[in-house]
Amino acid sequence: MPGDEEEALRGLEQRLSEASDTAERLMAEAAQAAARRTPQAERDGQDPGRPPPSGWQTPQSDRRTHTPGADLDALIGALRSLRELVPPEVLQRLAEAVKEVLMAMRGLIDWYIERLDRRRAEPPPVEDIPIE
């Protein structure tokens, strides 16, 4: 059984890696396509590779249709659907790993604060140098 679980986790990791690579490739392609063809450049008859006269601003009509929270809502929806695909055991292991990382960061911060407090409490060593 443990071998089957590890095999399933490896398969899941591979699929997530492939999905991430595909998403990055699609974002790069979309950025290239957007750079070649902007709506304002098409309306103004400009060269797609050159900025419009007002800079890289989006037209007023595009600003009204895009809400600031739309991208965040889409990202949260994607994360929720991805979360449903991940087995509960993996989510539990991930939560434990995140907890351990946070506890390590807490320990590091506590150590650094103690070090700063010690540095302030002890005066620097002073040595008398005779002048001849």
In short:
The chain is an all-alpha fold and 132 residues long. The protein has helices at residues 2-36, 39-44, 60-65, 68-85, 88-121.
Q: What report would you give on this structure?
A:
It is a single chain. The chain is mainly α and 132 residues long. Among the domains are: 34 residues; 34 residues. It is 75% helix and 0% strand. The model has no long low-confidence stretch (mean pLDDT 77).
Quaternary structure of the protein: single chain
Amount of helix:
over 70%
The major beta sheet can be summarized as: none
Ranges where pLDDT stays below 50 over 5 or more residues in a row are: none
What is the string of SSEs from the N terminus onward? HHHHH
* First-to-last CA distance: 83 Å
Question: In total, how many beta strands?
Answer: 0
Shape verdict: flat
Q: What is the count of helical runs?
A: 5
Q: What is the averaged pLDDT score? A: 77
- Rg, nearest Å: 28 Å
Work out the strand percent. under 5%
What structural category arises from helix and sheet content? mainly alpha
Primary descriptors:
mainly alpha; 5 helices; 75% helix; flat; 132 residues
Topology of this structure?
Layout: H1 2-36, H2 39-44, H3 60-65, H4 68-85, H5 88-121
